[in-house]
Amino acid sequence: MVENKNDNNIRHLPIVIVGTGFGGLALAVKLKDAGIDDFTLFERAEEVGGTWRDNTYPGCACDVASNLYSLSFAPNPNWSRTHGTQPEIFEYMKNVANDFDLYSYIRFNTELKEARWDTQSDKWYITTNQGEFTCDVLTTATGPFGEPVVPKLEGAESFKGYSFHTFNWDQNYDLAGKKVAIIGTGATSIQLLPEIQPYVDTLAVFQRTPSHVLPRIDFSTSAAQKAASRYVPYFQRSIRSMWYTAYEGLVGLPQFVDSRFLTVFETAARYHLNHQIKDSVLREKLTPDYRFGCKRPVFSSKYFPALEKDNVDLVTDGIQEIREHSIVDGTGQEHEVDVIIYATGFRVPHQIAERLTGDNGLSLSALLEDKPKSYLGTSFAGFPNLFMMLGPFSLAGNQSAIFTLEMQANYITKAIQSMRKKALKNVDVREEVMNAFSYEVGERAARTSWVNGGCKSYYQHANGGNAGLWPNWSFMYRWKTRKFEVNKFHIKHDSVVGEVK
Question: Which DSSP string corresponds to 259-312?
């Protein structure tokens, strides 16, 4: 870890990476591979892992197959199942940090409070709970799912029972025998519900909008498969390629080629619903009225059967108010509860944007206030030497997020290499380049079900356009990030501002 102190006794760190989830770890490894080791990672918690460290609710698992939802340079032959669970993914991430000797580069219990660009010194001034720092290059790798959202419901403050968001799961609290309410029926709720249903007294599930649910293809990994992954050349890589092709094609076809392919998924989801839910009234409540993909589809073979259990009640009439020991739905019916679990998602985009101030004195959240914009999901005009991982228009809705993060790690590493090779003090993406890129992806997304599918979701910004998905094949994102094109940036070199041709 490289550290210097300037005249004001503020510690200087050449490269700062905020966050030690998959993105932060991938970038750290890529930098080391490139011979760049004067970087520091800031982590607000006591361990690496990001969202896979923080989300510990029962049933927490990944919807993407483990051989694809892992770093290509760190294959794991020991996955126990087709799809990894939270404890297993968290352990994998700790192993990556250990195997690549990253722990010595991490400042734990260090949370970024504010970062502002100083045009006089061409540095980022960073305020944390552990003091102040400066850095030359700042990268945020905090991800979009780090700030839980709890809706403001009438009377919530009067509730006398126990309430919490799934992000803040209390492992020491026993739900057995309790009257429980789950608010929300997205991906988290659908994983959680079947796990707690067998041992709670009653379970009221408050649904605003039903989800498209497909069966979960998940099997235990045999000893022979683990051995082949460990000892047979290219076996695990071929499995990874198979999953990549499946996600890329099956999801890409209806979004980027012809929306009529959505009918195949809608038919499969409807068959899954009809096959597992026998009660026609309940089945109607669980039937989406929007196109597949407009909201995040979910995968479960246990959710629908759990909803039909005698101690479960699906409530679709909204919430009128919360009282001391109950929730009153939109029809006035009172549901007695001891515990309220909020499975209500996360603030998107992450509030990290509010903490970043560019060279014009505006925060990044102000730049993004009207609608999302970026260049390649990593750079923003007026924010020199700032790179963001999984920024607007980079996360591919048809591919593993790890694929995108690795491409961005490669790209940011090339950017830093180029800056050092050309002795550039700062690089700042040209506004017209950012706007052209943002317009292009906005137009391309207009015909996808993410934007034009008949629903409202976090895939869309306030005006209904693309909130930040990459609306193209993921291999096209790889192509666009294959090199750092300096000519698309304003640069400062030896106090001369210009554009490299």
Answer: GGGHHHHHHHHHHHHHHH---HHHHHHT--SS-TTSS--EE-SSHHHHHTSTTE
The closest alpha carbon to 57, from 184, 234, 219, belongs to 184
**Two tokens, residue 100:** 């690549």
Q: How far apart are CA 375 and CA 176, in angstroms?
A: 50
Is residue 19 within 8 Å of 27, Cβ to Cβ? no
Domain count, the chain: 2
Q: Distance (Å, rounded) from C-alpha 83 to C-alpha 220?
A: 9
Instruction: Kindly compute the dihedral angle of the four CA atoms of residues 241, 246, 248, 253, in this order, to the nearest 10 degrees.
Output: 150
Q: What pLDDT digit, counting tens, does each position of 271-315 carry?
A: 999 999 999 999 999 999 999 999 989 999 999 999 999 999 999
Of 88, 39, 40, 79, which Cα lies nearest the Cα of 61?
88
Residues in the chain: 501
Dump pLDDT digits (tens) for 183-240.
Answer: 999 999 999 999 999 999 999 999 999 999 999 989 999 999 999 999 998 999 999 9
- Residue for token pair 């905090």: 142
Q: Tell me whether strands 11-18 and 39-42 are parallel, antiparallel or unpaired.
A: parallel
Non-local (6+) Cβ contacts of 56 within 8 A are 86, 169, 171
Distance of CA 233 to the CA centre of its chain: 32
CATH number at residue 321: 3.50.50.60
Residue 65 lies in a domain: yes
Which of 56, 51, 59 is CA-nearest to residue 83?
59
- Side by side, the strands of the sheet bearing 319-323 are 319-323, 326-329, 334-336
Sign of the alpha-carbon dihedral angle for 398, 402, 405, 410 = negative
Contact 247, 398 (CB under 8 A): yes
* Domain edge (last residue) among 300, 320, 342: 342
Judged by DSSP in three states, 34 sits in coil
3-class state of residue 321 by DSSP = strand
Crossing angle of helices 235-252 and 223-231, rounded to 10°: 100
Q: Which of 342, 367, 387 is the C-terminal boundary of a domain? A: 342
Tell me the helix, strand and coil percentages in the chain, rounded to 5: 35, 20, 45
The residue range of the domain holding 181 is 156-217+242-342
pTM for the whole thing?
Answer: 0.94
* Whole-angstrom distance, CA of residue 301 vs CA of residue 217: 8
If you compute the radius of gyration of the chain from its CA atoms, what whole number of angstroms results?
Answer: 24
